[in-house]
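Fig. S4 source data, part A: sequence.
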Amino acid sequence: MSDRGRMRALHSNVVQLTRRAGLERRRPPAVRNPYSALPDWVYPTLVVSVLSAFSLYAAWVVLFFPDGRYGPYLSPFTSPEIHATIAGLAVPTGIWIFWVPLAFRGTCYYYRKAIFRGFLGHPRSCAAGEPRRGVYRGETRLFVYNNLHRYAFYLTAVQVLILWYDAVAAFVAGGAPRFGLGCVLMLVNVVCLSAYTFGCHALRHLAGGGLDCVSCHRARHRIWRGVTVLNVRHGAWAWASMLTVWGVDLYIRLLITGVVPHGSWN
């Protein structure tokens, strides 16, 4: 190859490299999601789909299917059983109850993150740019209700204790001990609910917050460490407890409607 041919080839390579560098500067580098190898659209799609389906199911149950008892089994949507009337009209039990777990989960730190990333389009990775929005004002105005989380925790803790009573009572029918699939499901449900509720950030702060030296207070330090063990997997317990509530209620209603055959095993 002649010198002129080498110069042309070199010039062509330089031009291509220059153009490529310009394109890379104009095109922001792709940000790999550090939380999952799946495409970025999978997580928000699952969040929107599952939370929407559960919300619609819960609204249908509370408003149109208020009876949640089958023998010793009581649905978590109707526990505790409250029978009241207003102006001669019976008010569904779930109306008196649903706002407690709704307030707790709606202001939960994990669910807030999931809702922001699923329904509001926030990216999962901090390195990814935020969508263009108005001025960020923190948890004020519309989101000021999030400050009610610690108070919702107190009410939810009482409700979980009531569900423990329901789970234990399910093992007794007509004064005699019994064992069925429903008993197991109710027990698994209340365990998951307890792990989610008592792994809450509000309880963690209640145990270890407001102290300059947490380890100097042995009892509170032990409680804080125990809550922290559950808090590490708070997101997993949030999903697991929601699905077990859904599963227990659906199983009881299938028994009520006769879809699941009645027998000693259930």
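Fig. S4 source data, part B ends here. Residues 31-257 form one domain.
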